[in-house]
Amino acid sequence: MSWIESIQKAINFIENNLLEDITMEQIAREVNSSVFHFQRTFSILTDMSIADYIRRRRLTLAAQELINSEQKIIDLAYKYGYDSPEAFTKAFRKQHYVTPSEARKKQGQLQSYNRLVIQVSLKGVEPMKYKIVEKEKFQVVGIKRTFNCLDGENTRGIPQFWDEMNSKGFDHRLIQLNNGDVKGVLGVCMPDASYPKNGLIDYWIATDHIGDVPENMLAMEVPASKWVVFEVHGPMPDAMQNTWKQIYSEWFPSNPYEPTGTAELEVYTDEDPFSPELYSEIWIPIK
């Protein structure tokens, strides 16, 4: 089953159980995937987390039922998974920009998020430059933070993490410490040991460093792996995001590999991040 087929099968499962208390483990099990890798793939291809998709779809259906029935708002709140009318009203207003009472009175416009249908379009005209490398285990040193990727916290928190560290000149310090084979500053995404249960990932801003761990930094051993290394050309963040999408929508469906689900690397140089000539890399461990 290709990743495109997996995403569509998962969407069908979600839609068929939209009012049930479904978990990420159940969804991933439907497509024989790890929770970490399926959630990551889904967010790369759709620009939203699975939790966001479920919330948007439930509130879309709730709005439709609100204006087409006499159901009490409190009953709709419980039906669509909210513990109280207040929590339902807050979420409803955040999506639709009106309260449930205003929507029932036909005041304002509603935001409808339709059921996702994954369509495969003809791609691959633009060549992807990559290489397959075998690499022994190596040490990275830097700073890590833990994010929840089930509720989309990672998509908001990781860019803020980079902004904070760059404003302190941390990237320049890492460049000075970089004495390993992987050249540059690394963004390392690693599922937490308890990921399947709580959805946590560790994200590192780090560098390949041989030697003692510098003061006020942590170290992690990246295991020996076979890696596919993709070239990324162009300014941040668009070039990196577009390459991730290409990898999962074009390269993996066309090649006999799959990710191992261990640490994935984004490799950045110390060049101008907004330059159209900027060169970066994405490293994915494969099997």
Description:
The chain has 287 residues and is an alpha+beta fold. The chain has two domains: 3-104, Homeodomain-like (Arc Repressor Mutant, subunit A, Orthogonal Bundle); 130-286, Regulatory factor, effector binding domain (Multidrug-efflux Transporter 1 Regulator Bmrr, Chain A). Helix content is 42%, strand content 21%. The protein has eleven helices and eight strands. The protein has helices spanning 3-16, 24-30, 35-46, 50-68, 73-79, 85-96, 100-104, 153-167, 170-177, 195-198, 238-254; strands spanning 130-135, 138-148, 185-191, 200-208, 218-222, 225-233, 264-268, 279-286. An eight-stranded antiparallel β-sheet has the order 1-6-8-7-3-4-2-5. α5 packs across α6. The radius of gyration is 22 Å and the shape is elongated. The model has no long low-confidence stretch (mean pLDDT 89).
List keywords for this structure.
Multidrug-efflux Transporter 1 Regulator Bmrr, Chain A; elongated; Arc Repressor Mutant, subunit A; 287 residues; alpha+beta; 8 strands
Q: Output the structural class.
A: alpha+beta
Q: What is the end-to-end distance?
A: 16 Å
**How many discrete structural domains?**
2
Low-confidence stretches: none
Query: How are helices and strands ordered from N to C?
Result: HHHHHHHEEHHEHEEEHEE
Q: What percentage of residues falls in helices of 4 or more residues?
A: 40-55%
The CATH architecture of the largest domain is Alpha-Beta Barrel
* CATH homologous superfamily grouping of the largest domain: Regulatory factor, effector binding domain
**What amount of the residues lies in strands?**
15-25%
Strand order of the largest sheet: 1-6-8-7-3-4-2-5
Helix tally equals 11
CATH topology of the largest domain: Multidrug-efflux Transporter 1 Regulator Bmrr, Chain A
DSSP summary, beta strand count: 8
Main sheet overview: 8 strands, antiparallel
How would you sum up the global shape? elongated
Mean pLDDT: 89
Q: Supply the CATH class of the largest domain.
A: Alpha Beta
Q: What is the CA-based Rg, rounded?
A: 22 Å
